[in-house]
């Protein structure tokens, strides 16, 4: 079958596992997450659970096609406009782009360390005051101002005493000019003045309202929020999901919401141990497009094959930035970390937070969009 979005694919017979490849499957914890998304259990998951036990044919070629590397000059100075445009076009075409080595590793690592410390305090409070031990996979429905659960063993911590101290570092990550420009170019129509565009933007007269900039004005700044998704050892493969809905669903529109993920642990280039067993994030390339996602999620052989041929599981390190259209199908893979010391019990390892995988994230969205999140704004986990 021809690809719906023009990516290179190999024949269906050509299934093989790349060296170091991971076969992903669903664990029981996925079912609790699915209870929040009943439609997924009847549509995506039969498809996905079938293919997840098979090797993937196209991971390597696709991963390369969406990975952007910096030149020596760019590492010493800053990414050039060519690279920035390349990243934004990759997000538009594939739904996901990996920009290698563009983030300040020390800064990202310090944010990751702070987030894990805050999560340790938060989970200890939950254990003491609510008698719920999240590190043992208990009650994934808890929610606080600063902490929410994505599913069993997968937490989202957005602030805490240690992260608050790093306020300036967080602001500098949010305002990173390279990432901001990539996001702004992806979220706004940039072919103004070209013949193909017909200059339709000139008809967006409502942009004069509420002291707006008008159709000829500058792009409105994107809104941002930050936090850290942490998966604990024992965390299963996450249910396949999109982080946001399409705003309109009759034609394909450019993104209104893009996430930047910063892996906070493990960097081979510094001689550090790369924690393959902690898992990473997998994506179904092209699924940010309605017509692709429709086929991938409707079940049956065609959808299953399309999904199979377009899953990527890029291995990213601290310093890399994964940017994805929040509509793209994706999921965190399982955390199988066990620790190195044979005498350690799993519990001791968990308490020391070594096996925890943190992704610091910055969400970027268009000014008109309201993101319905599952934070409980009433109760603080730190009080
Ligand atoms: O854990 C991951 O790698 C991804 C997490 C995620 O996509 C989510 O929680 O929405
Ligand atoms: Fe997600």
Automatic annotation (TrEMBL):
Gene3D superfamilies with a match to the protein in the record: q2cbj1_9rhob like domain
Tree of life domain: Eukaryota
InterPro entries: Fungal_Metabolite_Diox
Listed PANTHER family: PHYTANOYL-COA DIOXYGENASE FAMILY PROTEIN (AFU_ORTHOLOGUE AFUA_2G03330)
Annotated protein name in UniProt: Phytanoyl-CoA dioxygenase
Annotated source species: Triparma columacea
């Amino acid at each position: 079958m021809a690809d719906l979005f023009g990516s290179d694919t190999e024949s269906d017979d050509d299934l093989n596992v790349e060296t170091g490849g991971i076969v992903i499957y669903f664990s029981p914890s996925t079912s609790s997450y699915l209870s929040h998304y009943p439609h997924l259990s009847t549509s995506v998951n039969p498809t996905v659970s079938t293919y997840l036990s098979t090797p993937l044919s196209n991971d390597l070629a696709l991963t390369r096609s969406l990975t952007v590397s910096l030149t020596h000059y760019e590492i010493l100075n800053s990414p050039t406009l060519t690279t920035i445009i390349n990243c934004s076009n990759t997000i538009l075409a594939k739904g996901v782009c990996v920009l290698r080595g563009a983030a300040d590793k020390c800064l990202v690592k310090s944010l990751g360390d702070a987030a894990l410390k805050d999560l340790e305090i938060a989970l200890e409070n939950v254990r003491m005051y609510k008698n719920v031990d999240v590190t043992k996979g208990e009650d994934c429905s808890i929610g606080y101002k600063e902490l929410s659960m994505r599913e069993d063993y997968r937490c989202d911590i957005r602030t805490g005493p240690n992260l608050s101290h790093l306020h300036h570092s967080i602001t500098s990550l949010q305002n990173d000019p390279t990432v901001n420009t990539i996001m702004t170019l992806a979220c706004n129509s940039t072919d103004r003045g070209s013949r193909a565009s017909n200059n339709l933007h000139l008809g967006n007269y409502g942009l004069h309202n509420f002291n707006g900039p008008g159709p000829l004005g500058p792009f409105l700044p994107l809104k941002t929020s930050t936090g850290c998704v942490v998966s604990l050892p024992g965390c299963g493969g996450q249910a396949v999901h999109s982080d946001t809905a399409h705003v309109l669903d009759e034609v394909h529109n450019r993104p209104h919401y893009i996430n930047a993920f910063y892996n906070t642990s493990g960097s081979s280039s510094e001689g550090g141990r790369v924690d393959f067993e902690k898992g990473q994030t997998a994506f179904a390339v092209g699924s940010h497009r309605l017509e692709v996602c429709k086929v991938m999620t409707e079940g049956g052989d065609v959808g299953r094959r399309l999904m199979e041929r377009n899953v990527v599981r890029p291995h990213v390190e601290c310093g890399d930035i994964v940017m994805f259209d929040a509509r793209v199908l994706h999921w965190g893979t399982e955390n199988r970390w066990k620790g190195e010391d044979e005498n350690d019990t799993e519990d001791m390892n968990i308490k020391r937070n070594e096996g925890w995988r943190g992704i610091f994230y910055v969400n970027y969205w268009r000014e008109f969009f309201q993101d319905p999140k599952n934070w409980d704004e009433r109760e603080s986990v730190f009080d």
